[in-house]
Specification:
- This protein is of the alpha/beta class.
- Helix content is 35%, strand content 27%.
- The chain has 3 helices and 6 strands.
- The strands form 2 sheets. A 4-stranded parallel β-sheet has the order 2-1-3-6. Strands 4-5 form a two-stranded antiparallel ribbon.
- The protein is globular, with a radius of gyration of 13 Å.
- The mean pLDDT is 89.
Length: 97
């Protein structure tokens, strides 16, 4: 069972990413547990009780006026084997990840 955290402040994108992730799991005959978050604070508070294997993170969060890059740095300490995939429409963040 692979645990996936998806975090995006755009609800439409969050739902789309979740659907794609479920479709991938089905195509691979794998079981994924997917948790969806619309803000970084909720994800961070859930990390204590909920270890994840994969993080799909939007980079820029309009609602919080911050990026997920600082969370990703913390994740490397908290969950060193977890995979982090960044999602963005902003090319200016490409060099940072």
């Amino acid at each position: 069972m692979i645990k996936v955290a998806i975090c995006d402040d755009n609800i439409q994108n969050l739902e789309l990413i979740s659907r794609f992730t479920r479709k991938i799991a089905n195509n691979l005959n794998m079981s994924f547990i997917i948790n969806e978050y619309s803000d970084l604070k909720s994800l961070q508070s859930d990390l204590i009780n909920n270890p994840f294997d994969i993080f799909l993170l939007d980079i820029w969060f309009d609602t919080e006026k911050t990026t997920s890059l600082s969370l990703a740095q913390k994740l490397s300490d908290i969950a060193p084997t977890a995979k982090i995939i960044f999602l963005t429409n902003y090319p200016c963040y490409f060099p940072e990840v």
